[in-house]
Amino acid sequence: MNHHAAVEEHPVTDPGIEQHPPRQSDVDPAVADRAYRRIVGMLMAVPVLVVAFLVVYFAVPRDAELIVFGANLKMQTTLLGLSAGIAVLLVGMAAIVWARSLMTDEEIVDDRHELSSPPEVREQVLADIEQGIEETGIRRRKLIGSGMAGALGLLALPAVVSLADMGPWPTADLRAQTIEKTVWAEAMQLVNDVNHLPLKADEIQVGQLINAQPKALQDLHGTAYQQAKAKAAIIVVRMDPNTIRIPESRRDWQVDGILCYSKICTHVGCPISLWEQQTHHLLCPCHQSTFDLGNSGVVVFGPAARSLPQLPIMVDKDGYLVARSDFTVPVGPSYFERDSSKDFQDGDR
């Protein structure tokens, strides 16, 4: 009966663990010492490569070229990749040599047990962990541990330094000249977004919405054009002045009920043009933020947290719509450094 039970439990004879053949580093201290020196040497080369990375990053011009086998390569990018790549490679190689030459490599068997371990088993696990630490040899060869920790820590420097390539530091002056500024300026003409014809005030009907842009965009091309239009796109609407609220502070921002607003939603920057003539509401198609253009663009529904920026406008001597100035607040979505104190709030005068 015991024989049958054994057969059912182990239908195949358990071959056991094969005899462990010792490595050269296990029997010859000189071999172990040579492996130790190789590991430390590779880890000590990592700080040198990190310093080389930093020197290349700050000293080598970005437009410098390197000719290799007839191919033109960017010198800075090539040297950065080589220094950082070799540093990571050396850390990996050091870890492999450490594991293969100095750490204990004997096979062990751990029989399965129930998920709930008794206290003596947990104590045994802690003892095994302690034994594993001892078998790594790190306590006897302390330079490996400190060298590995130092190498891995220094490898973070290239990544941190490379974050500078994400763009310049967003100081107040830089923001004022970039993301908080558009091409709109005093006397800049408003033109139709489709045919680029100027907009004449007396030709715009009550209830009409026109997608428009600044005339200056016609002088821009490529990336500059796309970036400028992304911030300067506008909508022009005309409403009966008797049915809308025009604050005293914005009395001269409009022309007989003609108002101009940014076309960019203040939530996540979607373009807006869904116009409800009866309610004077402008609806964003992305997340349903709704702005009341009859009340200085305040939010009446949805996730947007700021009023739609309004562009001050007037008419020139020929009756065409022109801007009085740039937007008085940044257009588009919010960002951490943005000052929202100047945004229009419902009830402002």
Describe what you observe in this structure.
There is one protein chain. With 349 residues, this protein is of the alpha+beta class. It folds into two domains: 21-107 and 119-166; 173-323, 3-layer Sandwich (Rieske Iron-sulfur Protein), CATH 2.102.10. It is built from nine helices and twelve strands. It has helices at residues 2-9, 24-27, 29-59, 75-102, 119-135, 142-154, 156-162, 172-177, 222-232; strands at 65-68, 71-74, 190-192, 209-214, 234-238, 258-262, 274-276, 281-283, 290-292, 298-301, 313-315, 321-323. The strands form four sheets. It has a four-stranded antiparallel β-sheet with strand order 3-4-5-6. A four-stranded antiparallel β-sheet has the order 7-8-9-10, with no helix packed on it. Strand 11 (313-315) and strand 12 (321-323) form a beta hairpin. Helix 3 (29-59) packs parallel to helix 6. The longest helix has 31 residues, at 29-59.
Quick structural gist:
This protein is of the alpha+beta class and 349 residues long. Helix content is 36%, strand content 13%. It has helices at 2-9, 24-27, 29-59, 75-102, 119-135, 142-154, 156-162, 172-177, 222-232; strands spanning 65-68, 71-74, 190-192, 209-214, 234-238, 258-262, 274-276, 281-283, 290-292, 298-301, 313-315, 321-323.
